[in-house]
Write a structure and sequence with these properties.
The structure holds 2 protein chains of 2 kinds. Chain A is low in regular secondary structure. Helices cover about 0% and strands about 0% of the residues of chain A. Chain B has one domain. The longest helix of chain B has 28 residues. Chain B is globular. Classes of the chains: A little secondary structure, B mainly alpha. Chains A and B meet through loops of A and helix 1, helix 3 and helix 5 of B.
Chain lengths: ~10, ~210
């Protein structure tokens, strides 16, 4: 599952 | 990271540098909406709080720090150093009509009801409309300097390129963030009228002037 707290986009 | 995302980020970077250079070289912030710049500073400050909670990459952290610090620098230059040149009579958009509804929406429509996530959502929604005071100011004065037009074109292109990035990521990575995509589309649509003027006027060597 993807971690929504890790924001890769700026 | 794909090519659209990279060019989008570079375009965003270029926009900010263009604006700072314009102000520094002319010692003036004429034609720039301080209200939009305050909103952008608020956008970055509320979005990049995750600098303290999670690490993604050096690129990610450096860019976040750059965006926060340059947006604060821009606000400082406008409201302190070059305040005498700030055209506040034309910068009359009521920002509370953006910040309050956007704040409410961030509480209601988000991925997770937690402080950081609500602030992130708030920043995404706010960014989509943060340019409105600037566009409003241009429509009031009926003109824009060429360098200001370049700044706005780079700033608008950034989110348009992000849309291509999201299309790419949807097909090749299965990634889809509805909040970012909808807000990004709204943001890009707001620039369309300006894009048209930029292509038909500025690229042909003319200044942007609007009929009264």
């Amino acid at each position: 599952e993807e971690d929504i707290h890790k924001k890769d986009e700026l | 990271m794909n090519i659209f995302r990279l060019i989008g980020d570079m375009s965003h970077l270029l926009a900010i540098i263009l604006l700072l250079l314009k102000m520094w070289k002319t010692r003036s912030c004429a034609g720039i909406s301080g209200k939009s710049q305050i909103l952008f500073a608020l956008v970055f400050a509320s979005r990049y709080l995750d600098l303290f909670t999670s690490f993604v990459s050096v690129y990610n952290s450096v860019m976040k720090i750059f965006f926060i610090s340059t947006s604060l620098l821009t606000v400082y230059l406008m409201y302190f150093k070059f305040r005498a040149t700030y055209d506040s009579n034309h910068d009359t958009f009521r920002v509370e009509f953006l910040v309050i509804p956007v704040g409410g929406l961030a509480f209601l429509v988000n991925h997770e009801f937690s402080p950081l996530e609500i602030l992130w959502t708030f920043s995404i929604y706010l960014e989509s409309v943060a340019i409105l005071p600037q566009l409003f100011m241009m429509s009031k004065t009926g003109e824009a300097e060429t360098i200001t037009s370049h700044y706005l074109f780079a700033l608008g292109s950034y989110r348009a390129l992000y849309i291509l990035n999201w299309v790419y990521r949807y097909y090749f990575e299965g990634f889809f963030d509805l909040i970012a995509v909808v807000a990004g589309c709204v943001q890009t649509i707001l620039y369309c009228d300006f894009f048209y003027l930029y292509i038909t006027k500025v690229l042909k060597g003319k200044r942007i002037t609007l009929p009264a």
